[in-house]
Amino acid sequence: MHRLPAVALILVACSCGGKAAPDRKTSASSVVLAQVDDTVITDADIKELLARYANQPFVLARYSTPEKKKELLDNLIRYDVLAIEARKRGYEHDPEVQRVAKEKMVRLFTQHEILDAIKPTDVPEADIAKYYQDHAAEYVRPETVRASQILVKDRGKASKALAEARSLQKTDTKGFRDLVAKYSEDSDSKPRGGDLTQFDRSTTEVPKPVVSAAFALKEAGDLTDLVSTDKGFVVLRLTDRRPALSRSLEEARPEIQRRLLEELRTRKKKDYVDEARKTMRIEINEEALAKLELASASAGQSHDIDGGAMVGNRP
Q1: How confident is the model over 163-220, as pLDDT tens digits?
Q2: Beta strand 144-152 pairing with 140-141
Q3: DSSP state, 5?
Q4: Residues 214 and 311 occupy one common structural domain
Q5: Is the whole model's pTM more than 0.90, yes or no?
């Protein structure tokens, strides 16, 4: 028998835990191609296996001849022989096998009972509209800027601060913060390195001359000339500029629908777990949990923990 190319081995390996398992079920329309003890291999198994490579025509072409079809079938037979023999020798009770089987079972349960059961169309239009209204700032907002200031009451001292600021590179944020610490007399913004936070043209928290000067700046790192205010003279440095945003409900609908859909599915999953827990005896060893050491956990292993899932969406 000729040895299958690597891609065939991949195809057979992909059937692990799927239709090629000893517990395979057949439908009335399936044509049995082979049988290994009580396990059958059907035309549907072969088609499903190759369908995963529908976007790779060379794979389908490789197995179009009778010889190659037989070769692929023989590999599936050998796979089932190994699976049956492993079961006879008790490998189905191996902790690793049971862990993988449990993860697959939970993934299938989650897929069929939650993800497939709750569709985008299940999100009410009224909820989408309400979300848009309640989170309007995410979709409609004016142009904003963010700037840092050095506020000095004396013009001469302010001019000196401005000269030192102009000697800095535009990207030297730390240098400007140092000048704020050295010169600024504004007790509110000085502890923040002069940061005035994000603001738009209509703000009343920032003096109008400062607002006008900030919006006249073009790029982060740009400096104003001295800005005269009722509190003194300001040296202003632009740190961020955000354009106005205006997204209609229709434009935002897909994004909002995805968010609300995820919330629905998360609630559904929680409901499943909460109801199921009522029917089960669950005991927690608080003392042992408190003593649990996690520092020795294997480095490099990645587990998804989202408050309702860990490894395969484990509840």
Answers
A1: 999 999 999 999 999 999 999 999 999 999 999 999 999 999 999 999 999 999 999 9
A2: unpaired
A3: P
A4: no
A5: no
